[in-house]
Every structure is written in C-alpha cells, then in structure tokens.
Design a protein that fits this description.
Number of strands: 15
Largest sheet: 5 strands, parallel
Helix content: 40-55%
Number of domains: 4
Strand order of the largest sheet: 7-6-5-11-12
Shape: globular
Strand content: 5-15%
CATH class of the largest domain: Alpha Beta
CATH superfamily of the largest domain: HUPs
Length: 561
RNA sequence: GUCCCAGUAGCUCAGCUGGAUAGAGCAACGGACUUCUAAUCCGUAGGUCGGGGGUUCGAAUCCCUCCUGGGACGCCA
C-alpha cells in the first residue's frame, strides 16, 4: 500500500513497537514479544483519528492492567515526523491518536496527479492469477445467475488488477459431454419438425424457443440438405453450427455488459489434446485411482470427501469431473499461481473433491479458491420466476440490460456479497430505476464535470494542486470528504484481499454522499480565487475516486445526466 | 440424515482478520431550489443482531446447541 493513510498507520505502528521495546528495556513493562496488534480508524471520531489495541493485548502476557500498559507505552512514544497533536488513553485501554485537523489534505495533490492510477496498490506483486467465471453452457442464452457471475467475476478481476496482480479472465466452454449429446438431439428434432417430419425433442433436451430460432436459420442456410444424412454425422454438423452461433451470442452479450475475456477455453480441446488422458494417467501413477465395477474411481475419500468419484464411466467415457481435473491441471501448467473459480451455489459440493484432485496432482490446493455465489431468484409481478434452460424459461442478460440498463444491472449485482441470496425484483428494478444507488454515484460524477465545464465557460483554469492553498479547506464537509478520498488505496487492498467488490460499491456510495453534502452546503466557484482553487482540487480528487471505483465495478462515469 | 449459505430497523442489505455508543439505502414523517444539475441536501423516527448456553478485558463477529428459509448430496454437468 502506498497511500497517505497507510503511511501514517504504519508510522504509528512502528512508534508503538519501539515504545514497547524501550519500555521493556527500562523495566516499566516486562519484556514480551510484540502481539499482533492493530492501528485502526475508530468508528467514533471522538476516539481520535487512529487508535491501537496494543495495550489491551499486552494485559495477559505482561500481566498488567491494560490501562497501565497503555500509560507505560505512551510515556515512551516518539512521534516525531507524524502529524499527531494529542495522544489519549481511553476506554478499556485504547491508545487514541488525534491528528492535526487538516493532515489529510496532504493526500489531495497526489490523487489529482495520479488520476487513473490513484488507488492502485501492489499487494499482488505481479503474481499471476486467473479468474474463471460464468462458464455457462454454450447451448443457450445467459440468464440472471450468469449475469451475476459475470458482474462479480469481472469486478473481482479489475480489483485484483488494481491491487497489483497479473489477471487473466477466462471462460470455460462446456462443449463436450452428455449435454452436448442432448443438445444435438434437440437440434435434430427441431430440424426435422421444421421440415415437416415427425420428431420429438427428448425429455432431457432443450425445449427453448431459441433452439427453434437457431434451426430456422440453419434451414434457411442449408434447406433440406441434411434430411437424409445419417444421424450422428448430421447431429455433429448441427451442433457445430449451433455452438458457433450460441457462443457468438454469449460473447456479444457479455461484451455489451462490459465483460471481456482474455481466454475462451474449450472443454472439448482437453479431450482432443490428450489432456484428459494425461491427467488420468498422472492420478493413476500416484495411486489415486482404482477400478470398481468397470468404472475408474478417484479416491476422493482420502481428501475428506464423503464418497469417491467416478472419473471414467464403465462405458469408457470420461466424466465431466475428469475433464475438470484435466482443466485445472492445465491451469497450473500454464503458470497461474492463484486460480479463482466463481461457481453457483449448486456446485458447492464439487469444491472439496476438486481441491482434493488438485492436491492429488501435486499442486497446492489452497492455490485454488472457489467463490460460491448464491443463486439469483427472480421475481416478476410478485411471483418467483423459475429459471431453467431446459424449459426455456428465463430472463436473459439481453433482456435484463434492455429493462434496467447495463450500469444499474452491474451495480445491483455487485452491491451484495457473493454469499448472500439475491432476490431480483424485475418490476422494482424497472419501476424505480431512478432510485437505484448507481445513479446517486453517477450523479455526483456528473455534477463535478458540470462544475468543471462551468469553470471553463467562465474562463477559469484548474490550479496546480501542489500550489493551491489547501489549508483554506476548513469546513467539516470538506475535511470529511478528503479523509475518505485518502482511503481508496486501503479499500482496494482490503477488497481485493477478501475478493469483496461489494465493499467497494459501498465505499464509492459513501464518497458520493459526502460529496453531495459538501455540494449542497458550499459553492465551489466563488469570487474568492484562492478558496475556489482549493475546492477545485478537492472536487477534482473526488472525481478521480468516483471514476476509478466505477471503472472497477464496470459502471460508466457519465459527464452529464 | 450429512454438508454449504443465510437469519441484523417495516423492506433490501453492510458490518473487512473479535474492539469503544450496531450502520446505509428504500419506505414513513417534517423542512431546503432566484445559486456550479433538487437523480440532491438537512432533520425526525425506527433494533431482545433468530433463541439459549459458553470462551474473555470486550461477541452481530469465535465455539456448542436448537429453530427457520434456500441449496447440494448421480457412472448429470
């Protein structure tokens, strides 16, 4: 981290550490190891700008009352070089630090100067991380669950990028296996029906209208050319045609949603390239596979999973799990040091055995992190809408963007933590779209742009932030806003560490709120040139923070609304 | 039955590795536009943090137990 706030925090922590050891040398405290204490920002500002719990943690090892330990520490504190005005011992033994009221203004010039780069931190150290998300079956359109995964995965990726990781976004295309078989049979049935023949979409097949639509296009292009072609070959042709079309549509939708992938990875390619065989061989050699009733099983129980898992069926066809093992082997072979998967809650049972397989292959299971995203429940007219690809009833990403807009949809999905169930009331999102918090944040950005435009029209110019008289910013609303602007690097670091973009959404909402309050209480452009200059720096910094956060969340930052 | 997620204001949800007096949005009520955008602001009201036990200086947060809702437990993916 590199922000002003972090500099001060670590400065205080260092001072406390030194105070502890000199107190130990002088004998005012027993010599003990430094506990894992924190310097944090108290919730109540009456408790100072920063506070530490060190004294309370010393109570037990040093066998002293927390407040006495605090007194001994404070007596040894050397705070030179830090803008601390007052230190107090409070409550059960907190050491509270009060800073000079305008200490935070020092952060503003850097924010304006860094611009798009402000908020970038280097906790990742260029570590290669892959984020795999959505990975929807390419047999249909994207639904609400996929949309949530897309918004979440993309924001997490951006967050990690900002935090100094080398991020690769990946989409795993499930273009192999049983479902493709069902898909082919469904396509074939529709084809025959369209040409007036008797045919039935199989029970387990795809009944959606979009499949019919696809085959209409196929018939237009090829007519009855395949009417008499032998079935397996015919299905292969149709599957190839339909997959290309479906995948193209998925790519297009995601692109419009602001989600762009680095890699589209085909499951079928794992079979074709022999990766699946390679993975199975590796597991076999290390003794994690056994044969039972003609099938090949993975010893999942050795990894704390309840049941062993089939990797090759008795009919000789590998399972999806086998392909997934090969896929993860391949991910690590490609050099990713951190592999993040975003899965729907309905796949959570798959996590322990996947981690087990990673371990069995000889990789660190902790390098694989699976984010389980709770499912989206869709409400329309007060009723739950069942979503299912098989029956073809679902609201697509396309429809969602049409109804509530891309920005609102993305913000909405990313506002909530991944492990909270999401009730999406379409009517509400549509009818009250103006109340959507995303507009609140965007409006703040637009307002600042409007001020800048006004400035330009009046022939004014932006001052050099380094030279502006920032100490003129004395109003509570100004200082409160500046204080939070200085937090962005910290927020990015902590949100990235916890893979929690929803906290960034709350942060930027708070920034917008602080700005709106300031805006309503004070004018930026006034007859006082010096004050105007200082406030221009403040709002310019605010615009940077708003834009950077919105960018991470995949939401646009409009100049006017 | 076993496992995962959730239970916090009327509603939807935050609460980051345990910190001081539990927060925000919406809804409700009362105010503020001759001004750089009122998609805004200011104020009021709203809580046995699902129940009960435990751990400790300190618990919405950790442990145990029970209740409620959702999901997963296939030679499907």
């Amino acid at each position: 981290m590199s922000g002003l706030v972090d500099q001060i925090r670590s400065g205080l922590a260092d001072s406390l550490k030194k105070a502890l050891s000199s107190a130990g040398e002088k004998g005012t405290l027993p010599e003990v190891e430094t506990p894992a204490f924190v310097v944090e920002v108290p919730r109540e500002k009456e408790n100072g700008d920063f506070a530490s719990n060190l004294a309370m943690l010393l109570a037990k090892p040093a066998r002293t009352a927390p407040r006495r330990a605090a007194e001994a520490l404070v007596a040894e504190l050397d705070l030179s070089g830090l803008p601390v005005e007052k230190v107090e011992i409070a409550g059960p033994g907190f050491i509270n630090f009060y800073l000079s009221s305008n200490w935070v203004l020092a952060a503003l010039p850097g924010i304006v100067k860094k611009g798009e780069a402000y908020g970038r931190v280097n906790i990742g150290g260029g570590k290669k991380v892959q984020v795999e998300f959505v990975s929807a079956n390419p047999t249909g359109l994207l639904h609400m669950g996929n949309a949530r995964g897309a918004a979440l995965g993309d924001s997490i990726s951006s967050l990690l990028d900002y935090a100094g990781f080398e991020v690769s976004r990946e989409f795993y295309i499930n273009d192999a296996g049983n479902q493709i078989e069902h898909f082919g049979r469904s396509l074939e049935a529709r084809y025959l029906q369209l040409l007036g023949r008797q045919a039935q979409v199989p029970e387990e097949g795809y009944h959606g209208e979009d499949i019919m639509e696809t085959m209409r296009g196929f018939v237009e292009k090829y007519g009855d050319r395949y009417l008499d072609t032998a079935s397996p070959a015919r299905r292969e042709i149709m599957v190839k045609y339909a997959l290309a079309e479906k995948l193209g549509a998925i790519k297009k939708s995601l692109g419009e949603f602001g989600v762009n992938y680095d890699v589209w990875f085909s499951e079928q390619s794992l079979h074709d390239s022999g990766k699946v065989t390679e993975a199975i061989e590796r597991l076999k050699e290390s003794g994690y596979l056994y044969e039972y009733e003609d099938a090949l099983w993975f010893k999942a129980r050795e990894f704390g999973v309840e049941k062993d898992e089939v990797v090759v069926r008795s009919n000789g066809i590998p399972t999806y799990f086998a392909a997934d093992i090969a896929y993860h082997m391949n991910k690590f072979q490609r050099g990713f040091q951190w592999v993040i998967n975003i899965w729907g809650a309905d796949h959570h049972g798959h996590v322990p055995r996947m981690k087990g397989a990673v371990k069995a292959l000889g990789y660190d299971p902790d390098a694989l992190q699976v984010i389980i995203m709770q499912l989206v429940r869709l409400y329309k007219s007060g009723e739950i809408v069942r979503m299912s690809k098989r029956t073809g009833q679902f609201v697509t990403l396309e429809e969602l963007m049409e109804e509530v807009g891309r920005d609102a949809a993305r913000y909405f999905f990313v506002m909530r933590s991944a492990d909270s169930h999401l009730d999406f009331d379409l009517d509400l999102a549509k009818a009250q779209s103006n109340d959507n918090p995303v507009y609140y944040v965007q409006y703040a950005h637009a307002r600042i742009c409007s001020i800048m435009k006004q400035l330009e029209e009046q022939g004014g110019t932006m001052p050099d932030p380094e030279k502006a008289g920032l100490s003129l910013l004395r109003e509570e609303a100004e200082l409160a806003l500046a204080r939070r602007l200085a937090d962005l690097p910290d927020e990015v670091a902590s949100c990235a560490r916890d893979l929690a973009p929803h906290r960034l959404a709350r942060y930027v909402h708070e920034i917008a709120g602080l700005f709106h309050s300031f805006y309503n209480a004070h004018r930026v452009i006034t007859g006082d040139a010096a004050l105007t200059g200082a406030r221009l720096v403040l709002v310019a910094a605010t615009r940077v923070v708003l834009a950077n956060c919105l960018n991470i969340l995949g939401v646009s930052a409009p100049e006017r609304m």
